[in-house]
């Protein structure tokens, strides 16, 4: 028989997957919350220690990708830390106002403009902006894969094994 806490834990894990593509929802933290809620509810017995450690590592990697994926990609494309900081703030504001498309456009546009003002190189600015936008999209894809893996591994470990 499945109880309320188990349902809540699975709902948090599913929310983690959804949160990776929904703006301002911390998917990795939701996944970790569901995992640890169930672990606590089971008397710290289920899932086992190794499974818990591996899923925790995947959850932490999800959080790191969420927080730093776009910035790391922008830096790889040649943007400065100042540029990535400004672009992050602008992108978040635009995301709140216009949604995910605003986030992407705000990030790309801000990186391009700030880098162009800094170096007067349109090609380099476009490259940095493309890296930042691509990095953000890749970060989202990685987060989805990690949270789906956490969810499926949890379901297998708890309900099948």
TrEMBL record:
It holds the Pfam family DUF456. The keyword Transmembrane helix applies. Keywords: Membrane, Transmembrane, Transmembrane helix. This is DUF456 domain-containing protein. The keyword Repeat does not apply. InterPro entries: DUF456. It comes from the Archaea. Coiled coil: none annotated. The lineage of its organism: Archaea, Methanobacteriati, Methanobacteriota, Stenosarchaea group, Halobacteria. The chain crosses the membrane at residues 6-38, 50-74, 86-117, 129-160. It comes from Haloterrigena alkaliphila.
